[in-house]
Amino acid sequence: MSWDQLISLIINGLATGMLIFLLAAGLTLIFGLMDVLNFAHGAFFAWGAYTGAWIYAGTGSFIGGILGGILAGIIIGFIMEKLTIQPVYGNPVSQILITMGVMLVLSELIKVFFGPNPVATPVPALLDGSWAIGNIIIIKYRVFIILMGLVTLTGLSLLLNKSKIGLIIRAGVSNKEMVQALGINIKQVFAMVFMLGAGLAAFGGVLLGPYSGTIQPGIGFENQLLAFIVVVIGGLGSIGGSAMAGILVGLAGSFMAFYFPEGALAVNVLLMALVLLLKPKGLFNFRG
What we know:
Blueprint: H1 3-33, H2 41-59, H3 62-85, H4 92-114, E1 119-120, E2 130-133, E3 136-139, H5 140-162, H6 164-174, H7 176-181, H8 186-212, E4 214-215, H9 219-234, H10 239-259, H11 264-278
Antiparallel strand pairs: 1-4, 2-3
Helix pairs in contact: 1-5, 1-8, 1-9, 1-10, 2-3, 2-4, 2-8, 2-9, 3-8, 5-6, 6-8, 9-10, 9-11, 10-11
């Protein structure tokens, strides 16, 4: 393998890892902090992708598409948390069953509103093209995704560790009754966390469109498995751990796709299984 191929694979892996991280970051908030087994999380990703692509195609504004996609995820998350999640807090079996049902419904609604066929999602003109450094070709949009992932990681770390709302969230996870006794409505706090997680997943979905070139209704199912793998490897509730695990999974997938494409997904499932056997709390089990 030449140096230019190696660097290209690394950049591809980092970009893929950051996309997975955006989906997994919301999941680790909902699953790791709130103990909610949300098997409809991929639907936020898919709806963000389709809403963002629809707005971008209609207005020509990629920023508008990003904001619209995030808003769609937040709104769907708000409705879902109120109607389906609140009644099953503390009941894992019911959470699994009801969220799987919601996932199926939301996936079918995508076909109703946007059609069953793949939708083309071009790269914005400003981010199109590449830089050439010798024989190394660096695609601009992939660098953009990496930067967005780093910005998101920094923002979430500051929110959870340096802000008052972050302190309330962490206190609520440790002792809900104590926080409630202080006059803080913990249900509202958890609803905000759920909406934040949904918005992050939708953000990842918007960015995925131009990265892959097309989107189709099944992208929620396809990427949700990778998000769960990242959350398990990184450690429940750990934003930093999800980022590092996302990068690990992205790089593993990138190199496996180059050498042995059929094993790209299998290697990540195997990695998750090894982590569960050797270190059940995750490889990077730290908060932040």
